[in-house]
């Protein structure tokens, strides 16, 4: 993958060895158990590599959060996983572990060491009746029983100062902290055990812009220092272009495009990615027109046949109503290897198999 | 401490409202039943007692309502609640002072067992939703749909009359002289067992359900998911994160429903002829002893307020957010 | 009387409703959907039977309940279905005739108390400020003051309190809980978009209350009505049992009064006091069932989506927080279909998910973290102080 040159604020790390750390395979997640359950994820494939910053973008309700919660088995009822594998590659090689088959004991032991999460609602992520220190140290105590109490407290102070909070805040209650501080506490907590994967679910949505930037810079700096991989969820694609190495765009419970960040930015291959990019003003670079995407995301309970995006798509034709698209390399010569798109305009083989005449990818999606 | 200040203000108003209701009710309702009682005891009531009854029940119609109200307050603050007719000529305050400890002992202990036990069961049921334990819910619903007193009747007929395991009523064996002797204490405990069991059985359902539903609500909070994500032990997540927060509304719910709980247990004393406040109230109803009834109402209200203050203190201890400096 | 804590059940309904979006403007046709579940229907059927008995009771009773015979304290038999009392009166007839008093008191007290609760609760929620302070303090005072002694004082000073008087007194002492619930719900409703929109477009307050707010409070109002009826039925029975109300009017409580007063227990005359208690329990259960139905509607978190608990156990699906169920063998409708031509075109999908959450029992319920983004700080200290009051 190519190191982007545009982003000065967050120099993305140079290409590391592309060793996978977390592999999600054909993950299907349903909400509800009866006949009228809803498929929130419909066979998602995604791989996270060591040290990589992977951005996950899409409109609200497209399944971004569901994906990471299911992959960590934290998804609340009535959500449940009805198919798939989530493979975690242990440090230093060895057989990957399927998180979905792990028994409760080993899953509990592995949590927060392997994968730590910064949740969307910083306001509700902290237990309101415990002091910050207690919430930091109980994590350490659960996984590092050999550490003494003073050692744990020392570590908690260290973590707080690492995210720019005065160590004496250790005895504060969550309600005594501002929103930004709470989110920093959550980040400190996530890094307590130096996890290999850090998942951030819209970590800055509730914060003001200045605070957002500070926190992002901090995360990226810590990432460069500690070398963990990041899954960053947001609906703000322009933000991802700055910080992510690779971006996966989700729509209606599926990944529709998966490509290096700069490729998504400069050469989107899926009409939805294209629309998403044009609904945000670019932070840098030339001005362009903001178009937005007409219509709204489909009801997952009543998905249309074929491509779920077809009702909102300018390039849809009758094949789109009949054939559900699959993730394939785009039909554009010279594209980065490993980039994928789920659009029939890039999949003439499937179109032909379905008995339709393929149409070429429009110029806009084949830059 | 703004929280506590507000609460104290609220209790002051409630106490005032209770006293004022007590003042207004006999004056607003038609008829002067107390006057006829006084007439019946003509001559044998000392004139000071007659005066206090006049003040309590507004029989002195020559005075303005406001004047009556002021005098009423003065008398209440001196602890003079009039004479009891059922226990003639014992003052109401003395009757209450004798019976209150029995009620506090029985109702207090039974309620604590019920609240603590019910909450623990509720924590478990709320946490383990979808397991066999959900089957307990309909059973507890049945017990909470039955009136306290009927369950008492049923238990007396089974445990006391049919099987003769436990005494059917009274606070202790009347053959014994009250005192701190092992025999007497044993007898008190033996007599309290059946009423206490009935109170616990019929009230525990509410606490189980309340706590279960709060647990269900709290377990969908993010901090519980975070606690699971951190890989803490099941026990720690369940008690330290979920139950620790679910208990807060349970405490305030407890404070609010105390009035109802106490009312129910008063009837229980009536069924078991237990020598507490409730039984005195029952006797007062039978003997049309209005001074005793009104005195009991005031004392019960003040006891409930006192327990509310305790619940508030517990709440402040449990919830750091209420301790915020204003 | 006794069983207040049952009424604690919907305590978090307000909070839950807020997140579950149950009451985005409900079409009038669906306003009573909360009475559709199996629990609610069972409860309603039982209530219906009691209502019929209350109406036709005196005509279908086999004996005059006051008629004394020589059959003193006889066991239940075909002749006397539930035996007789110490004066040879037929207990079955007393039960049937006594149903009316219980139902009338429950209904009248329930209606009046609910009207009071709506008046106080909704205005408190809408007024805000000092008016809210005063009204909610008022309802809290009535909650904290123990009702039974107060009712006893009032009823016993009224000579021969009849059913309507008792119902009035019960309504006067029993409205506060409903008012509290309704106030909380109104407050959360008031912040909702469609009410804000109505205000912004200059609609009159009474119109907002009548057409926008009340229809969306139907479930809570129904629940508070049911709770008050339960309270009234149990109180009426208790009052009759301790002899505060007129003991010559038949009701289930007065049967128990006569039983207790004439040593039914010591004489082993179980048929004298067991049936009346069971009837009260049955009525109470029916009311609770209706309330559970409403509660599960209002608070979807209490509901296991789509499957009955038994079915879930059979399939070994045990929903847990923090350990998502992996049920790979569960039959799946669609996963990712192979590339196979589909000929017919489906109807375009509905627009938004939450709108049909009212109807579909398994509406798409996104994880809590997804839902909360709009009100990130909904459990601030202010709310908690509120909860404590």
What does this structure look like?
Chain A has 367 residues and is an alpha/beta fold. Chain A is 28% helix and 19% strand. A 7-stranded mixed sheet of chain A has the order 6-7-8-3-9-10-11, with helices on both faces. The longest helix of chain A is centred in the middle third of the chain and has 18 residues, at 209-226. Chain A is globular. The model of chain A is unreliable at 1-16 (pLDDT under 50). With 326 residues, chain B is an all-alpha fold. By secondary structure, chain C is mostly helical. The chains are: A alpha/beta (367), B mainly alpha (326), C mainly alpha (389). Chains B and C meet through α1, α6, α7, α8 and α9 of B and α1, α5, α6, α11 and α12 of C.
Compose a concise summary of this entry.
The complex is a heterotrimer of chains A (367), B (326) and C (389). With 367 residues, chain A is α/β, with parallel strands linked by helices. Chain A is built from 11 helices and 11 strands.
Task: Give keywords.
heterotrimer, B: 326 residues, mainly alpha, 75% helix, C: mainly alpha, 16 helices, disordered C terminus
Q: How are the secondary structure elements laid out?
A:
The complex is a heterotrimer of chains A (367), B (326) and C (389).
Chain A: E1 20-31, E2 38-49, E3 53-57, H1 64-71, E4 79-88, E5 97-98, H2 104-110, E6 115-118, H3 122-125, H4 132-143, H5 149-162, H6 179-190, E7 197-201, H7 209-226, E8 229-234, H8 237-243, E9 246-251, E10 254-260, H9 261-266, H10 271-277, E11 340-341, H11 348-353
Parallel strand pairs in A: 3-8, 3-9, 6-7, 7-8
Antiparallel strand pairs in A: 1-2, 1-4, 4-5, 9-10, 10-11
Helix pairs in contact in A: 4-5, 5-6, 6-7
Chain B: H1 2-28, H2 33-40, H3 47-57, H4 65-77, H5 92-127, H6 136-145, H7 148-162, H8 182-219, H9 222-229, H10 234-272, H11 277-286, H12 290-318
Helix pairs in contact in B: 1-12, 5-8, 5-10, 5-12, 6-8, 7-8, 7-10, 8-10, 9-10, 10-11, 10-12, 11-12
Chain C: H1 4-7, H2 13-20, H3 38-60, H4 91-127, H5 129-144, H6 147-157, H7 163-174, H8 176-190, H9 193-200, H10 205-213, H11 218-241, H12 252-261, H13 270-298, H14 309-314, H15 368-371, H16 381-388
Helix pairs in contact in C: 2-8, 3-4, 3-13, 4-5, 4-7, 4-8, 4-11, 5-8, 6-7, 7-11, 8-11, 9-10, 11-12, 11-13, 12-13
